[in-house]
Amino acid sequence: MEAPHNSPAAEVAEGAAQGTAPGAVTVNLAVESPEQMQALGRRLAGVLRPGDLVMLTGELGAGKTTLTRGLGEGLGVRGAVTSPTFVIARVHPPLGDGAALVHVDAYRLGGGLDEMEDLDLDVSLPESVVVVEWGDGKVEELADDRLRVLIHRAVGDTDDERRAVTLVGLGERWAGLGAESWAPWAVAGA
After folding, report:
1. Which phi and psi angles does 68 have, rounded to 5°?
2. Angle (nearest 5°) at CA 172 between 171 and 174
3. Quick one: which of 76, 89, 71, 173 has its CA closest to 139?
4. Residue 164 CA: distances (Å) to CA of 114, 149, 151, 160, 185
5. pLDDT in tens, 132-184
6. How far is the C-alpha of 16 from the C-alpha of 154, rounded, in Å?
């Protein structure tokens, strides 16, 4: 279960998820399989640049790490992208001239940014793409401009691999985020 959201930043982020935060741009996508989730990550990597903060939200097993694996492939980073649950954070340096990928799993961290200070994310952010799983209410203070990726899956006893993915761009950096660039995943009329 995700940590409770009680900070003002978390309330703004939750409003953005519902399309109500000022300046938020929302795109709804449909993903049919883990392979498509990984492909979406590769596509998303094409629009990311050093300094971008990406926050991933979704139930356990929703596909956050699968999406991040695709991001790593698209960014061309070294090392297998796996869940950093037990180490909290992994840094994947670029194989070429691109950005490093800093992959954080904040699931076990209860506090806000203060508890995450030891990770030095603020130092890594300018030259890296920082992806934080379970970061709501914990890392919003790192960047005014950020991309939230909300992954919704059927819960309960099901093997349904379909996911509804919502991209919520906050800030000027994401003002141009539009559904037209996300084919074939974009949901028409959403």
Report:
1. -65, -35
2. 75
3. 89
4. 32, 10, 6, 12, 9
5. 998 888 788 888 899 999 999 877 667 788 999 999 999 999 988 887 778 78
6. 22
